[in-house]
Amino acid sequence: MLGPVILAASRSDRMRRLISAAPVTKQVVDRFIPGEDVDDIVPVVRSLTEQGLELTMDVVGEDITNPAQAAAARDAYLELVDRLKPLELGTRAEMSVKLSMFGQALEGGHELALSNVRPVVEAAAEIGTTVTLDAEDHTTLDSMFAIHEELRKDFPQTGCVIQAYLFRTEADARRLAESGSRVRLVKGAYKEPASVAYQDKHEIDRAYVRILRTLMQGEGYPMIGSHDPRLIAIGQELAHQAGRKPDAYEFQMLYGIRTEEHLRLAAEGHRMRVYTAYGTDWYGYFMRRLAEKPANLRFFARSMLTKG
Predict the structure, then answer these.
(1) DSSP string over the chain
(2) Among residues 286, 278, 234, 229, which one has the least CA distance to residue 258?
(3) pLDDT tens across 122-138, in order?
(4) With contact defined as beta carbons under 8 Å apart, do 40 and 60 qualify?
(5) CA-based diameter of the chain, in Å?
(6) Rounded to 10 degrees, what is the CA torsion of 274, 137, 173, 249?
(7) Closest residue by Cα to residue 214 from 176, 263, 254
(8) Which one is catalytic: 74, 182, 184, 273?
(9) Span of 18-27, 56-65, 120-129, 180-189 with lowest mean pLDDT
């Protein structure tokens, strides 16, 4: 039951201040969020790609309260694209965006988010890469999927994220698989009510496998977002059953978690993409990663002890 507690802490200004001020916090955060600006992240991109890994990059920050902040978020991604261009990595370095950062929750937010994210998607396409729209809480998903569909008219490589714990996701997966979309499947990291989401871990895991089977048997490109060794093995088996070659799907894991597994999968010839967040507004991102899988606490502690 740690997840709801951690999510509550992620929304508490008092907890934000306490955790941010703790001496150990920066050391822990630096392990999993490798920089505050684009100058910090470019060497990380070089290092990971030299090791045979791929990346999706997230400029963290979601507390957008006015259109100027949404425009600043857009500009931060445009700066990232500009810095990626000379590296000539193509789809080995893509981007993940949360539409809340682009103004989705503001008045007229659907149109505002679309108008802000489109230039990022266009700029990404110009350097040979793409963008994935992250899933947020269930109230935002109809807007996210509509924006995804609109962007795919001109940029069919635009991806999206679906969350296994939501009841709606099996139907969403069937629709996306039929349309040939790039889809990252995750378990889910937001506190959702029992009226819309599974609450039991085993039910979520079973839904994850059902949905992943649908994606593997479909026309799209599945992205397996999980650190769970059992789900990783099941993903490999489902890909084999569907006749997919290693370049027809990929694994995705968070920067700083199970690093040796990243390298193992890449060495075996799998596409292994590392979700790499950076920015100064790290608190919400960091707390949701803990809430998504409280066992991450063990990963964090072990990583701090082993430095590897």
Answers:
(1) -HHHHHHHHHT-HHHHHHHHHSHHHHHHHHHHS--SSHHHHHHHHHHHHHTT-EEEEEE------SHHHHHHHHHHHHHHHHHHGGG--GGGEEEEE-GGGGTTTSTTHHHHHHHHHHHHHHHHHHTT--EEE----GGGHHHHHHHHHHHHHH-TT-EEEEETTBTTHHHHHHHHHHHT-EEEEE---S---TTTB--SHHHHHHHHHHHHHHHHHSSSEEEEE---HHHHHHHHHHHHHTT--GGG-EEEEETTSSHHHHHHHHHTT--EEEEEEESS--HHHHHHHHHH-TTHHHHHHHHHHH--
(2) 229
(3) 999 999 999 999 999 99
(4) no
(5) 51
(6) 0
(7) 176
(8) 184
(9) 18-27
Q: How confident is the model at residue 172 (pLDDT cuts 50, 70, 90)?
A: very high
Query: Does 184 participate in catalysis according to the annotation?
Result: yes
In angstroms, what is the C-alpha Rg of the chain? Answer: 18
Cα distance between residue 14 and residue 293, in whole Å: 23
* 118's tokens: 């489109």
Other beta carbons less than 10 A from residue 218's beta carbon: 20
Annotated catalytic residue within 58, 74, 134, 213 = 134
Q: Which residues are registered as beta bridge partners of 160?
A: 133, 183
Provide the CB-side half-sphere exposure for 102 (13 A, CA). 28
Q: Quick: pLDDT tens for 16-36.
A: 555 555 555 566 667 788 888
Q: Is the Cβ–Cβ distance between 143 and 113 less than 8 Å?
A: yes
Q: Does the pLDDT value for residue 305 go beyond 90?
A: no
| Ordered DSSP codes for 225-261 | E---HHHHHHHHHHHHHTT--GGG-EEEEETTSSHHH
Distance CA 211, CA 186 (A): 10
What is the DSSP track for 134-163? Answer: ----GGGHHHHHHHHHHHHHH-TT-EEEEE
Distance in angstroms between the alpha carbons of the first and the last residue of the chain: 28
